[in-house]
């Protein structure tokens, strides 16, 4: 196991700024590109990250601390953000993600003592018994999965434009 | 074709800042993780991006403008950066990438007039005839390919740590 709470937080606290640097000011042609029917564009991925900050990571962490294996996590609706009907701008959404993340990391630092809590267990509705450190590792990798997704979705806009170079550009063939 | 020079530059000018936001200050455990023998860690990817700024994009662009199809591009050595022996810090390397990119985009803006030059052709050593707009599209997607690679390589450090969640996290199975 590599898990280390301080190192996990290093990644978690960088994600909003990295996405902001990558995306702020891009034309809609980039921001609204997707990979076909039923796939998400960059803005929808940010909405999903916001939803996970609200209803997934901290709520589950608190259930582990308070209930242990007595009460399963409520299922996380991975498509809830698609019901989102507010008219906030993309910049407002990025700011919301950044603010929620900062609040959640502050809570995480208050609630979790690594030497006491990392091996605590909870009950996942599909997987059964899971550990606090597995939940926290997943939070990190979930950030990176969706960052890579955004980068891939943007790249695919130029799939035809690169001409014969497509062969060398693995990201276009995923 | 989607290609538009201003939109391509939007992505190209954001890459150094996005990588800086993602990587600066991360522990070596993240920065020096790789995907096994013969694969690159994040720092090696940055070195490759530096090499491409020096010897790939602008030199090829200039050959198209000056020589057209008369003279093939010199081959780009995708492993040249692995011979790199200097002892610059990671922050210095990121700064070098940022500086070279800014210089190259300034040159690009001076040299290429979209209404005149995008359909110009050159001779790729493996692909044969290629267009200026294909070279420029490839520059964009090459940035995104290597950004996604860095994100994936970092994520893989926690492949075992996420426990049963691995199944939901596609990035770990690539």
TrEMBL record, chains A, B:
Highest taxon of the lineage: Bacteria
Gene3D superfamilies attached to this UniProt entry: dinb family like domain (1.20.120.450)
Protein name: DinB-like domain-containing protein
Residue stretches making up the DinB-like domain: 12-150
Pfam family, one: DinB_2
């Amino acid at each position: 196991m590599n898990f280390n709470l301080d190192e996990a937080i290093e990644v978690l606290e960088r994600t909003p700024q990295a996405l902001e640097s990558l995306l702020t000011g891009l034309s809609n042609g980039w921001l609204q590109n997707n990979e076909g029917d039923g796939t998400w564009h960059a803005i929808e991925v940010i909405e999903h990250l916001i939803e996970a900050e609200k209803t997934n990571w901290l709520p589950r962490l608190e259930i582990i601390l308070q209930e242990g294996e007595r009460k399963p996590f409520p299922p996380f609706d991975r498509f809830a953000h698609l019901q989102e009907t507010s008219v906030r701008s993309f910049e407002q959404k990025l700011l919301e993600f950044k603010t929620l993340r900062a609040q959640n990391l502050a809570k995480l630092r208050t609630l979790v003592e690594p030497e006491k809590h990392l091996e605590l267990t909870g009950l996942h509705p599909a997987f059964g018994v899971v550990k606090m450190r597995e939940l926290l590792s997943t939070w990190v990798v979930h950030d990176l999965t969706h960052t890579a997704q955004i980068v891939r979705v943007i790249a695919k806009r130029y799939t035809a434009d690169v001409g014969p170079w497509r062969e060398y550009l693995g990201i276009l063939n995923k």
